[in-house]
Amino acid sequence: MAVELARQKVGVVGAGMMGREIGFVFALAGHEVVLTDADPAALDAAMDHSRDLLASGRFGADADLANLTPVADLSAFGDRSLVIEAVFEDAEIKGGVLRELDDICPAECVIASNTSSIPIATLAESLSPARRSRFLGMHFSSPVSRMEFLELISGRETADEVMDFADAIGRDVGKAPTRSADVAGFASNRLLFALLTEAIRLVEEGVATPEDIDATCRLALGHPVGPFRLMDRISNTLVRDVQRILTDAYGARYETGSALEDLIERGHTGRRAGRGWHRY
Length: 280
Ligand SMILES: NC(=O)c1ccc[n+]([C@@H]2O[C@H](COP(=O)([O-])OP(=O)(O)OC[C@H]3O[C@@H](n4cnc5c(N)ncnc54)[C@H](O)[C@@H]3O)[C@@H](O)[C@H]2O)c1
What we know:
The protein is an alpha/beta fold. It folds into two domains: 9-180, Rossmann fold; 188-273, N-(1-d-carboxylethyl)-l-norvaline Dehydrogenase, domain 2 (Orthogonal Bundle). It is 42% helix and 14% strand. It has ten helices and eight strands. It has an eight-stranded mixed sheet with strand order 3-2-1-4-5-6-7-8, with helices on both faces. Helix 5 links the parallel strand 7 (149-154) and strand 8 (176-180). Helix 1 (19-28) packs across helix 2 and helix 8 crosses helix 9 (236-250). The mean pLDDT is 96. Residues 13-19, 37-39, 42, 86-89, 93, 96-97, 114-116, 139-142, 234-235, 238 line the site of nicotinamide-adenine-dinucleotide.
């Protein structure tokens, strides 16, 4: 199917770690992006982050943020052709945002969720039946401006042309799309959490320290970053949220002891907090 990609009108909801860079890469690829967040401070921080990314020089001397507009709410989403939702990993919160988007966005607008783990069929229940064929999962990986990964997930009712559109626009913004069936955690996070939960168990059993497990993954397995540094980057609260969703779906397979919960209770939520499994 030929997909018209010239300068799409894109909206991103949630300007946190993921949404701010999703907005950035679409804007740099020439699409017209509006970015919003319920927390005005998060939106300001996202624009500062985008300016820092540009200043890094990685995107060329001609790159600018002319295509990226922060907006206070969803009222600017009435003319979008693609909207990507990247709010907290919570089915109720996402459901509320999706219901609002369904009302505001044009009928032909494609709505995508960047959920890490919640089945697209579950989220689709928050949308009107007419919208469900235009809803899918577009799961990016952090940092979005560096990682080529984009996992596309079709819900029960997603139209083939919508998958084709997501594939084409994903490639247009520099990603290399893969596909996963619509299972909790999709292929990527079932795989990642097999590693993360085993790493936590190794620490809980006193087999090895986070430092040594990180070194093992780098030196023996060739991973660019070990599982504990990775959890600190993702944020340990999000790791806990996804682990709960996977445990609800698959049972003991993704269960660990209390080490992760204890860490979060002590405020060690990850790199942004300056402390997690490691100190920063
Ligand atoms: N962090 C990762 O490595 C990663 C990777 C892939 C996918 N994801 C997924 O991306 C999504 C966002 O994760 P994140 O790490 O960016 O989280 P984050 O906490 O950094 O950002 C979420 C943002 O959503 C905003 N928000 C919450 N409710 C909102 C609402 N009702 N309306 C508008 N904005 C709202 C928050 O203020 C916050 O700024 C989650 O679904 C997560 O599972 C995260």
